[in-house]
Amino acid sequence: MAYRLTYTDFYAALKEGRLLGLKCRACGGYTVPPRATCQHCGEAELEPAEMSGRGEIRSYTVIHVPPEGFEGPYVVALVELEEGPWLMGNVEGLDLRQPVPDLVGRQVRVGHRVVPPARYTAGEGVAVTFGLV
């Protein structure tokens, strides 16, 4: 099975300021991040599609004790994108020295952050981020 959108292509597009997903030819639903099958109906008839990159925070948490290679605190959010799928990433631009405001329902725009190589990685990575609008 050939992947219509690889993670390499997904991350390269993020670095260019674009959010790529997959649109299902069977049901019309969108899937992001890349998968071999539609997250809605399970079909494999997917085609790459550029998405708006806009969405709404549905849930979030503040990480105070981060894994090795990261510095806390930081906010991880689940965002429902305009096209329907949910995507997880870090919320940037918050002053975390102050109490975190309620973020549920806030509008965001997808961005990215380059993550430097760490002890157990295969090199540089790219993380999905969200900025409040």
Task: Tell me briefly what this model is.
This protein is mainly beta.
Account of the 3D structure:
The chain is mainly β. It has one helix at residues 7-15, and strands at 19-24, 30-31, 46-51, 54-63, 74-81, 86-92, 107-115, 125-132. It folds into two domains: 1-51, no CATH class; 52-133, OB fold (Dihydrolipoamide Acetyltransferase, E2P) (Beta Barrel). The protein has a five-stranded mixed β-barrel. Strands 2-1-3 form a three-stranded antiparallel sheet. Strand 5 (74-81) and strand 6 form a beta hairpin.
Pick out its properties.
133 residues, mainly beta, OB fold (Dihydrolipoamide Acetyltransferase, E2P), three-stranded antiparallel β-sheet, 7% helix, globular
Radius of gyration: 16 Å
Let me know the number of strands: 8
Uncertain spans: none
Global mean pLDDT: 93
Q: How far apart are the termini?
A: 39 Å
What portion of the residues fall into strands of 2 or more residues?
35-45%
The ordered H/E elements are HEEEEEEEE
**Main sheet summary:** 5 strands, mixed, barrel
Could you name the CATH topology of the largest domain?
Answer: OB fold (Dihydrolipoamide Acetyltransferase, E2P)
Tally of contiguous helical segments: 1
Tell me the overall shape: globular
CATH architecture grouping of the largest domain = Beta Barrel
Q: What is the helical fraction, as a range of percent?
A: under 10%
Structural class: mainly beta
Number of domains: 2
Please list the strands of the largest sheet in the order they lie side by side. Answer: 4-5-6-8-7
CATH top level of the largest domain is Mainly Beta
